[in-house]
Write a structure and sequence with these properties.
This protein is of the alpha/beta class. 27% of the residues lie in helices and 27% in strands. The strands form three sheets. The chain has a five-stranded mixed β-sheet with strand order 4-3-5-12-6, sandwiched between helices. It has a five-stranded mixed β-sheet with strand order 9-8-10-7-11, sandwiched between helices. The chain has a two-stranded antiparallel sheet with strand order 1-2.
Length: 215
């Protein structure tokens, strides 16, 4: 897949590929981004979905111009990349309504040590962020599953298969009737960024996207 396709019809049309983690497609700011297609002259944007880590790797090898996702700390510190904050967020616990912890006003990571925790897949920025938080707290969940398909995870939680950890904005997008959201005592930041190569900051294909994010 090329970063730019050269021709369409009688004129020249630049074609840019943007990576998007699935939850972003449901968010209001992304709907605003879709309007860029209507206002950016001679630029056609196409979208590729995937995990944050996989998309950022494609940004680094120039398959993608940029990606909306949740970078790991290592990726945030990568000197080749620049990350523009899109949505600042934090992690909350998602529990079945009948769970013993569901009545608490907040819970700590230590409360989850003996619970069946559902974590994101290992190749995601979300996994890196959450597993690092557990490690810094000196806690290793006794049992855990891995799944990054949010609809499936929410179904698992609703059917008492475990406790999940999601950013609060994502939970709002995937609500379930028999699931509750509890704040964590430890604040775990899990924000969404627009990630791109630092050398592409002034790329004419990227400018409309960056302008949308900053307004």
């Amino acid at each position: 897949m090329a970063l730019v396709d050269a021709h369409q019809g009688q004129g020249t049309l630049d074609h840019a590929f943007i990576g998007v983690i699935p939850p972003v497609g449901r968010m209001d700011f992304f709907k605003n981004f879709l309007a860029v297609n209507q206002t950016a002259k001679n630029i056609n944007y196409s979208f590729v979905d995937g995990s944050s880590h996989a998309l950022i790797e494609k940004v680094k090898n120039t398959t993608l111009l940029a990606a909306f996702g949740t970078p790991s700390q290592e990726e945030l510190d990568d000197g080749l990349l620049e990350h523009q904050l899109v949505l600042e967020d934090h992690v909350v616990a998602v529990l079945p309504l009948q769970h013993a912890l569901a009545s608490k006003s907040e819970i700590g990571l230590s409360d989850l040590a003996y619970e069946n925790v559902i974590l994101p897949q290992k190749d995601t920025g979300s996994y890196s962020i959450i597993s690092t938080a557990f490690s810094l707290a000196g806690i290793k969940p006794r049992q855990y599953k891995e799944c990054s398909q949010i609809d499936i995870v929410m179904d698992m939680v609703e059917n008492n298969a475990g406790i999940a950890l999601f950013s609060s904005s994502i939970v709002d997008l995937y609500k379930r009737e028999h699931v509750v959201t509890i704040p964590l005592k430890q604040k775990i930041n899990k924000s969404i960024y627009l990630s791109f190569l630092r050398r592409n900051r002034r790329n004419k294909l990227l400018t409309p996207v960056m302008d949308m994010v900053t307004h």
